[in-house]
């Protein structure tokens, strides 16, 4: 992958399956941690967007070097049991 070739650690790269409520479709974006902050790369916009600034994208699954995890949308999560959907990958 180009990001690891550029020096980004594998633990700082995640594929995220989202539900785009704006267009009613499922989509995959790349989440990258840079200097401690998470950014998303989406081939539909070709720009870095800070995590949490995609209000119409509901993260459902994260794929990384540890496998696949299902996320619980923030609206359904309780404060102590689950992190908000856009917070910690």
The tally of structural domains comes to: 1
Gyration radius, to the nearest Å?
A: 13 Å
**What would the average pLDDT be, to the nearest integer?**
80
Shape: globular
- The top-level CATH class is Alpha Beta
* Helix/strand order: HEEEEEE
Count of helix runs: 1
Q: Classify the helix fraction into a percent range.
A: under 10%
| Residue windows where pLDDT falls under 50 for at least 5 positions | 75-89
Q: Kindly, what is the distance between the CA atoms of the first and last residues, rounded to a whole number of angstroms?
A: 19 Å
Main sheet overview? 6 strands, antiparallel
- Order of adjacent strands in the largest pleated sheet: 4-3-2-1-5-6
Strand content: 35-45%
At the fold tier of CATH, the topology name is: C8orf32 fold
The oligomeric state is single chain
CATH architectural label? Roll
The count of strands amounts to 6
Helix-strand category: mainly beta
Write the layout of secondary structure elements.
Layout: H1 2-5, E1 13-20, E2 25-34, E3 37-42, E4 47-50, E5 57-64, E6 67-70
Antiparallel strand pairs: 1-2, 1-5, 2-3, 3-4, 5-6
Question: How would you sum up this structure, described in words?
Answer:
The chain has 89 residues and is mainly β. It has a single domain, classed as C8orf32 fold (Roll), CATH 3.10.620.30. Helix content is 4%, strand content 45%. The protein is built from one helix and six strands, in the order αββββββ. It has one helix at residues 2-5, and strands spanning 13-20, 25-34, 37-42, 47-50, 57-64, 67-70. A six-stranded antiparallel β-sheet has the order 4-3-2-1-5-6, with no helix packed on it. The protein starts with a helix and ends in a 19-residue tail after the last strand. Residues 75-89 have low confidence and may be disordered.
């Amino acid at each position: 992958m180009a990001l690891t070739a550029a020096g980004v650690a594998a633990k700082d790269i995640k594929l995220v399956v989202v539900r785009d409520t704006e267009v009613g479709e499922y989509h995959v974006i790349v989440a990258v941690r840079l200097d401690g902050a998470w950014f998303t790369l989406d081939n539909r916009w070709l720009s870095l967007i800070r995590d949490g600034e995609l209000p119409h994208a509901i993260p459902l699954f994260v794929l990384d070097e540890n496998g696949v995890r299902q996320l619980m949308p923030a609206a359904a999560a309780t404060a102590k049991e689950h992190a908000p959907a856009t917070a910690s990958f």
